Amino acid sequence: MDMTETSHTAQLPQVSEPRNPGMALDLDWVRAAQANRSAIERRAATLPGRRSVKKDYQAAWLLKAISCIDLTTLSGDDTAARVRRLCAKARQPVRPDLLQALGIEGLRVGAVCVYHDMIAPAVAALEGSGIPVAAVSTGFPAGLSPFPLRVAEIGESVKAGAGEIDIVISRRHVLEGNWQALYDEMRSFRAACGTTHIKAILATGELGTLRNVARASLVCMMGGADFIKTSTGKEAVNATLPVSLVMIRAIRDYHERSGYRIGYKPAGGISKAKDALTYLALIKEELGDRWLQPDLFRFGASSLLGDIERQLEHHVTGAYSVAYRHAIG
Ligand SMILES: O=C[C@H](O)COP(=O)(O)O
């Protein structure tokens, strides 16, 4: 895998992508989707070993990774002050002296991701930055509150200024093979979002099989998802490479059949720069460069940025600093 092709330009000009309108539920297609676990795991296992990006190229890829982070805080003890600190980091994700040494200007993260009650302070703190606020919704993380309330929550978050809505699906619809119910749910959530972009969180760690992950991915895209996202970060197992392979192949299939590009967001447990590079390599190999832009790829992560900044500091100065110097929130 050649990752020596990127320039130092972390943020390429945005290409505008037509929005996926969804399509009728195609049960034949859904039921035909399979996932060969051992082949997928074998393929996933080859990725970290083959990824070897050095020096300048590594710095460029790490800057690219930063531009794709949904910088996240989703804790019961979140406060407006913590969210404001996170937003300051979102605006200026890397120390100015390091960026200057790297010859980079205008680097920012993909979005800031928070619970509903933290939308207002986040919107205020990000004003003028162009960084959207993503709100988790629909009874995140379990998604088991009354359906009308889950739909209403989306409307409230859009009203409060969220530019992106991360919904959670009902895992039971997948576990019971009730694809019609999952599709109808996705349609309702999408309708409640209006023109606001919607990411569908599958909570893959709770879906039982990779085949279920493949099928749920397709149904959510048919239902109008703009992005599919692995996890809430609260499941026992969150983003993994095998699950990512299944989901991005579903994205590729959907693009081949419909012409629409759906975004991908691995989330939960991605905290190391080297893991971020592996994910970027996977996307490049399976989907191609077009998907390596923030409008089609995000990392959902609370602490990844700190490790990337540490690696960039090492690249510039030749020395590692202690991790606490790169606190996020
Ligand atoms: O969507 C984002 C996740 O909740 C963040 O998970 P993390 O804290 O493991 O990075």
Describe the structure using short key phrases:
Aldolase_TIM; globular; 329 residues; eight-stranded parallel β-sheet; binds glyceraldehyde-3-phosphate; 46% helix; TIM Barrel; 13 helices; alpha/beta; EC 4.1.2.4; 8 strands
Descriptive overview:
InterPro entries: Aldolase_TIM, DeoC, DeoC/FbaB/LacD_aldolase. The chain is α/β, with parallel strands linked by helices and 329 residues long. It has one domain: TIM Barrel (Alpha-Beta Barrel). 46% of the residues lie in helices and 10% in strands. It has 13 helices and eight strands. It has an eight-stranded parallel β-sheet with strand order 7-6-5-4-3-2-1-8. α10 (210-222) links the parallel β5 and β6 (227-229). α3 crosses α12 (273-286) and α4 runs parallel beside α6. The longest helix has 18 residues, at 241-258. The protein is globular and about 55 Å long. The site of glyceraldehyde-3-phosphate has 13 residues, from β8.
